Amino acid sequence: MTSAPPSGPGAFPKPSLAGSQLRRLGIDTGAEHVVYLRRDSPICRSEGFGPHSRLELRAGNRCMLAALNIVHAELLGVDEVGLSESAWQWLRPQADERVMLAHPASVDSLADVRAKIYGRSLDATQLHDVVRDIVLHRYSHIELAAFITACGGDHLGLNEITALTAAMVDTGTRLHWPQAVVVDKHCIGGLAGNRTTPIVVAIAAAMGLLMPKTSSRAITSPAGTADTMAMLAPVELDEPTMRRTVETCGGCIVWGGSMNMAPADDILIRVERALDIDSMGQLVASVLSKKIAAGSTHVVIDIPSGPTAKVRDPAQAQLLARLLRQVADAFGLQLHVLISDGSQPVGRGIGPALEAHDVLAVLRNAPEAPADLRQHALAVAAAVLELGAAAAPGKGLAMASQCLASGEAWARFQMICAAQGGLRTPGVAGFRQPVTAPHAGRVAAIDNRRISRVAKLAGAPSAPLAGLTLDVHLGDAVAAGQPLFTLHAQSPGELAYAMEYVSRHPCIIGVEEPR
User: Fold this and answer.
1) Is the pLDDT of residue 101 over 90?
2) Does an H or E element contain 379, and which?
3) pLDDT (tens digit per residue) in 301-319
4) H or E, element range at 268
5) CA angle (21, 66, 41) in 5-degree steps
6) How far apart are CA 451 and CA 433, in angstroms?
7) Distance CA 13, CA 398 (A)
8) Predicted confidence (pLDDT) per residue in 142-178, tens digit
9) 394 CB contacts (<8 Å, ≥6 apart)?
10) Average pLDDT rounded to a whole number, residues 31-38
11) CATH fold label, 183-257+278-420
């Protein structure tokens, strides 16, 4: 028998069971592949399959592993096999094609996960085996959670983090560029509205640097960079289109998910978020594997630090910066770290379209452009220009400011959007409601996490026009009844849902009364 393609889990451990008719159920299970069988299915009876069993499925020369859910209804026929959306997209069955089912082969790398649980260090070969099996969807979500937990806290040493980074790169697509200097930037996150990437890419490309930016969509935030950019231009580009855009314009802002770069990272992140575990070692491997896979040589990392940001204090930020530099050095990656103010959101808009409006305002030098977003984008752009040797040390800010003020950045951004499929105008939500100050005073605190939560409850990012706009910043004096932020929703129900949360959390923006 010929070997399975790279997307499949491998050969069957024994002859497969009789073919069954496939049915697409249209159930979104996220990244987890799920197969559905009737409780009285003869396959379940003969093989002892039960809820959460792991099954191996083959259709033609395509195969995969999936978790089993049992159906206690007549949703399926006894000879039918239902597939979740992710399973259907992975298996790609032809019309009327039947599927073969079997018990999967054992996953040997799970022994390495168990060793890690008991405190053993893993070498490069062991970590590569684990990551390979993760990419091939051989791990259930329970097994993924076990690996993530075993690596949590400070349980990954420097050598393990470096090996994990390499394994993530090696098990996906890696881009290569002819230029000696390829710049990139990344923000650690945890700060709503901090949408500097489109502005930085436009400035860097206009100043002669190569910046092929691949970005992510939101996982738990109100918007990812790709969500915001999708309001302005197409982002789901294939590699040839991306390369043409970069060759023509010097840069791009595209969704990295279509490039298959460090795919294990995307799988692990979804489980990490569900567990609310954000290990520093895994964070470093996640960030740097994406940059190395994208072909970057010089990277600026922005670490916002604040009491309600992802990185809570300066000491933690310095520790993370040091670890990032150590791992980057192992790959010959030139790295510059900025530790920025994470005490409050950046910009006014929070949500895909609202952040896109902010980006356009800054690029167009509009009078209403949020000054904090403009200043932070310029600071990051200055670091990129200097790291990429487009500006002399200490001269990057002046160069970036001139590029933005002259309209060069805006012209380059329009060129990039045209190459990616055409510049779009973001829309506006049909339903809005201000949240006002309960009394006069001064804005003393803004809770980043709860602000993001409200924006998501209003519908962002799945409802791309939804979210909120900040009407105040830290230190502002406010009068009783003055808007603190304004909710935007695409339906009355979503607006009411967000407002119910606001009513239970009146201190999302804290206002100190005058003494």
Assistant:
1) no
2) helix 371-387
3) 999 999 999 899 999 999 9
4) helix 263-275
5) 45
6) 15
7) 64
8) 899 999 999 988 899 999 999 999 999 999 999 999 9
9) 386
10) 89
11) Pyrimidine Nucleoside Phosphorylase; Chain A, domain 2 (3.40.1030)
Residue 15 has pLDDT above 60, yes or no: no
Q: Is 503 exposed, middle or buried (0-12, 13-18, 19+ CB in 10 A)?
A: exposed
Nearest residue to 201 (alpha-carbon basis) of 188, 189, 190, 215: 215
* Residue among 254, 455, 448, 266 at smallest CA distance from 353: 455
Q: Would you tell me how many other CB atoms lie within 10 Å of the CB of residue 329?
A: 12
CATH for 110-170 (3.30.1330.60, 1.10.260.40, 1.20.970.10, 3.90.180.10):
1.20.970.10
d(CA 370, CA 348): 6
Amino acid at site 238: D
- Name the active-site residue from 129, 278, 358, 471: 278
Residue 63: pLDDT over 90: no
Mapped onto helix, strand or coil, the DSSP state of residue 154 is coil
Taking domain 20-102, whether its CATH number is 2.70.70.10 is answered by: no
**Domain limits of the chain?**
20-102, 110-170, 183-257+278-420, 431-512
Is 278 a known active-site residue?
Answer: yes
CA nearest 209: which of 381, 325, 422? 381
Q: Tokens 């339903």 correspond to what residue?
A: 431
Determine phi and psi for 136, rounding to 5 degrees: -85, 10
This prediction has a pTM of: 0.89
Collapse the DSSP code of 211 into the 3-class scheme (helix H, G, I; strand E, B; otherwise coil) and give the result.
strand
For 441-463, the pLDDT digits (tens) are 999 999 999 999 999 999 999 99
